[in-house]
Design goal:
With 256 residues, this protein is of the alpha/beta class. It has 10 helices and 8 strands. Helix 2 packs across helix 10 (231-245) and helix 4 crosses helix 7 (157-182). Bound molecules: zinc ion.
Length: 256
């Protein structure tokens, strides 16, 4: 599930993307399907997948940032998934623009409000002079947003390139801030927006490395997800198999 999740009680405490607050989705689903249900944050699961079977497994301190219809984050610190009191790692809601775009969380200028798919679409709509691209449109699925951006590229590549330059800069600022706070060994960028990675990623990485404190930006390995969709659910499953079937506790990163 997206948002802040209480895995122990099977509750989504707050998900702005879903518009949920304190929804006991675990017990609701259990009644329907008559089987035990475990509820986890989707980006946490994504992180655990990469830490268990991906390239992140070679590192102890890893940060994961996903960009798509929302912007998510998760952290493995000293080999454990770090969730704080629940909901830690919400990189999507760090402020990157003072008094910027209104965010679903109620704040302004959050990374998610500035660079999610709908923010990208909105930036193109505002900037372009091409009428077909200016029609009011808000993507309800990631595929719709991807289609719009592809079409925009065909019709007005200059505008799209400049929008992605802004997106790369803002993502780079957020990555720099995260690097300064956690000094991670490894940072992975994932999410559906990687469909356009050649237009914003280089900028994001260079802004982050150039502006990070001291040599923190030089030392961190910055990687790109190549597992795709499956990584979002695999982490939970891998962890459950390790814990419940093989009863391995050593590398278990979920503490439920
Ligand atoms: Zn926000």
């Amino acid at each position: 599930m997206s948002g802040s999740v209480d895995s122990e009680r099977g509750i989504v405490k707050s998900s702005y993307i879903l518009g949920w607050r304190n929804v006991p989705i675990g017990s609701m689903l259990e009644k329907k399907i008559e089987a035990p249900v475990l509820v986890y944050n989707d980006v946490d699961s994504f992180a655990v997948t990469h830490y268990t079977i991906g390239r992140a497994k070679d590192y102890r301190n890893c940060i994961f940032i996903t960009v798509g219809s929302g912007v998510g984050g998760a952290m493995i610190l000293e080999g454990k998934l770090y969730t704080g009191k629940g909901g830690a790692g919400e990189v999507g809601h760090v402020t990157v623009v003072h008094d910027g775009r209104k965010c679903s969380c109620g704040s302004r200028g959050c990374l998610e409000a500035e660079i999610s798919f709908n923010a990208m679409v909105n930036r193109i709509q505002r900037k372009t002079s091409m009428d077909p691209l200016r029609v009011h449109f808000r993507a309800t699925t990631e595929d719709e947003a991807i289609r719009y951006i592809h079409e925009a590229m065909r019709v007005d590549q200059a505008t799209v390139t400049s929008v992605f330059d802004e997106v790369g800069t803002l993502l780079g600022i957020a990555i720099k801030n995260v690097i300064n706070i956690f000094a991670p060994d490894y940072l992975l960028i994932g999410g559906e927006a990687l469909a356009f990675k050649e237009f914003f990623l280089e900028k994001a990485v260079s802004v982050a490395r150039k502006n990070a404190f001291g040599d923190l930006g030089d030392d961190v390995v910055i990687d790109v997800d190549d597992m795709g969709e499956v990584a979002w659910v695999q982490g939970v499953v891998l962890n459950l198999i390790e814990r419940e079937v093989f009863q391995i506790e050593g590398r278990s990163v979920y503490e439920v």
